[in-house]
């Protein structure tokens, strides 16, 4: 009896496989102190384990490689690589074969094929191979795309025009990351200074240590100081409304050097409102002597862009800090978006950390008074007394 083989529906077979590097084997160390009942048993077992690193057995990271067991995950900012193979399973020659690979995202369709030329013929048991690459830049219909980092930002407005940005970056993947670069690209209005290193013997040392690894679910805080450029800082209107700070650029590596990169959208902060008149301190000593005069420099800015002010300065003493000079003096006219600096003298009758308060500015045109308290703090100490022998 002769049985006919089932009819083959397709002459070609298509296989799609992801190209990934092997991962380092990880194990969970089990150890104890020598005074415990097992003694040195657990430590010896870890030393004999071929998967551990000699001299660093208690580290989870081993020196063996593990091949991927599934298709795995792809994270935003990483490059997705895939291997496509079209195999001729029939005993016939197949002609004019065109292999085309498209990736549909939530916003566009991308052509990932390396070549758009058709293959003239494909003989039996032969195949057409192609490798495609795509840098993942958006989250949407990519069912394999996950978010690798959780980025949170906080803004702190200093008494001056400086702005401090704290960026909290958390690794929400299941493997360690090497943080290659975390930088802030400021907007055109600001200059930025990174505060993530210290100067030791003329060399900048990272505050996070010599190794920039970020373990799974760990969080690291990066701090930046932004200061308006001179041409913008001189314009009082810049301190009002929403201002664009810049964007974070984050580059990391995972496993065996796979590189990922993320750029945040433009970060914006709501600048504090100072009203019509702003008073800021340009200079003040940190420490002063008890009952000895000390000097401060104040800057008064007319934040209005339309009207001129005629200002009068009044100085009100507190229980611990006393002003030296004439109260109620005329400062003259202050034109829109302009500033003036004042040198003032005080003395303190009480030791400790004392607050500078009691300045009053009155606009004689509108009969409006602006009060300024707790504008700064100084440490008051007792003057040193020399004792003759």
From TrEMBL:
Signal peptide: none
Trafficking protein particle complex subunit 13 N-terminal domain boundaries: 10-146
Domain Trafficking protein particle complex subunit 13 middle: 149-272
Domain Trafficking protein particle complex subunit 13 C-terminal: 285-380
InterPro entries, A to Z: TRAPPC13, TRAPPC13_C, TRAPPC13_M, TRAPPC13_N
Family according to the record: Belongs to the TRAPPC13 family.
PANTHER family from the UniProt entry: TRAFFICKING PROTEIN PARTICLE COMPLEX SUBUNIT 13
Quaternary structure, from the entry: Part of the multisubunit TRAPP (transport protein particle) complex.
The protein, known as: Trafficking protein particle complex subunit 13
Organism (species): Apodemus speciosus (Large Japanese field mouse)
């Amino acid at each position: 009896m002769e049985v006919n083989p089932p009819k083959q529906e397709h002459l070609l077979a298509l296989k799609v496989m992801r190209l990934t590097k092997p991962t380092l084997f990880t194990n969970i160390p089990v150890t104890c102190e020598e005074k415990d009942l097992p003694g040195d048993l657990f430590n010896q077992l870890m030393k004999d384990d071929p998967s551990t690193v000699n001299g660093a057995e208690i580290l989870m990271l081993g020196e063996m490689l593990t091949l991927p067991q599934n298709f795995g995950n792809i994270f935003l900012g990483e490059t997705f690589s895939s291997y496509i193979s079209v195999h001729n399973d029939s005993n016939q020659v197949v002609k004019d074969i065109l292999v085309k690979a498209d990736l549909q995202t939530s916003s566009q369709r991308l052509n990932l094929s390396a070549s758009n030329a058709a293959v003239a013929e494909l003989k039996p048991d032969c195949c057409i191979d192609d490798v495609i690459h795509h840098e993942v830049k958006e989250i949407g219909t990519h069912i394999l795309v996950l978010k690798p980092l959780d980025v949170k930002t906080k803004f702190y407005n200093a008494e001056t025009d400086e702005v401090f940005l704290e960026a909290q970056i958390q690794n929400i993947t299941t493997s360690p990351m090497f943080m290659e670069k975390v930088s802030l690209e400021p907007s055109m209005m600001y200059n930025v200074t990174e505060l993530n290193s210290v100067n030791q013997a003329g060399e900048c040392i990272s505050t996070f240590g010599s190794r920039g690894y970020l373990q799974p679910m760990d969080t690291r805080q990066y701090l930046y100081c932004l200061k308006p450029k001179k041409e913008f800082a001189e314009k009082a209107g810049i301190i009002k409304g929403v201002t664009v700070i810049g964007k974070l650029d984050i580059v990391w590596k995972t496993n065996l050097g796979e590189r990922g990169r993320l750029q945040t959208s433009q970060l914006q902060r709501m600048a504090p409102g100072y009203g019509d008149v702003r008073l800021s301190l340009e200079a003040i000593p940190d420490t002063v002597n008890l009952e000895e005069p000390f000097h401060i420099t104040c800057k008064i800015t007319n934040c209005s862009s339309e009207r001129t002010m005629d200002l009068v300065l009044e100085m009100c003493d507190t229980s611990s800090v006393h002003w030296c000079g004439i109260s109620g003096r005329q400062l003259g006219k202050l034109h829109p978006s302009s500033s003036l600096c004042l040198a003032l003298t005080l003395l303190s009758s009480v030791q400790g950390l004392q607050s500078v308060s009691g300045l009053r500015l009155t606009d004689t045109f509108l009969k409006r008074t602006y009060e300024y308290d707790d504008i700064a703090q100084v440490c008051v100490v007792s003057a040193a007394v020399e004792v003759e022998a």
